[in-house]
Design goal:
The chain is an alpha+beta fold. Helices cover about 50% and strands about 15% of the residues.
């Protein structure tokens, strides 16, 4: 679900951003809010923006999953399967403000967006597994660019370059987090029903 097709020479206006916000907010408020919050990263932050703040987002995040077509099996334990909501890729694209941009009918179409796609965010130096003060500072700076008409839409490569930051250190942090989390869970795991409790 992209926001539409545009010619390569198209320059978005503040009105285009407001239309995008209207589309995003309606999608999040009426259909995919809980799943968007659970996605994390830039999609999480845009969902908070659409929902009007953290307090409203918290109450929505704690609700039970609602949409059967959006369900995803998370894991099974003791012959039980657990489900939760999950965003579809095109819904994430709509939340991030993705347009199809082309220069001529014979050229390949490029995707440009107001915000980086979730996949780009997750492979950037900004992604630490949680929303940091640096992420919020970057987000507020981007909002200011948009409000003053200085923002340009970017493609995947351009977003990747602008979000590079401390990627090597971020990857080291994520690896250490994953390793320590696995160690903690192994040390504190509950016995299965076939193991004796001591």
């Amino acid at each position: 679900m992209v926001l539409g097709h545009r010619r390569g020479d198209w320059r978005p206006s503040k009105g285009d951003y407001l239309k995008y916000e209207e589309t995003r907010d309606q999608l999040i408020r009426e259909r995919v809010g809980r799943a968007a919050l659970k996605t994390g990263g830039i999609v999480w932050r845009l969902a908070i923006e659409a929902l009007g703040g953290l307090e409203k987002a918290k109450s929505l995040a704690m609700r039970r999953p609602e949409f059967v077509e959006r369900r995803n099996a998370l894991y099974s334990a003791d012959s039980k399967v657990f489900f939760d909501e999950e965003l579809k890729e095109d819904e994430m694209w709509a939340i991030c403000g993705v347009y199809q941009v082309y220069h001529s009918p014979s050229e390949e179409v490029a995707q440009k967006s107001w915000w980086p796609k979730q996949s780009t965010w997750e492979s950037s130096g900004m992604f630490t597994g949680y929303w940091t003060p640096a992420c919020e500072s970057w987000f507020q700076g981007r909002i200011k660019e948009i409000e003053t008409g200085k923002a340009i839409l970017r493609n995947k490569r351009e977003w990747g370059s602008s979000l590079k930051r401390s990627k090597r250190e971020t990857l080291q942090l994520l690896a250490a987090n994953a390793r320590l989390s696995a160690e903690f869970l192994e040390q504190h795991r509950l016995p299965s029903s076939s193991e004796p409790i001591i």
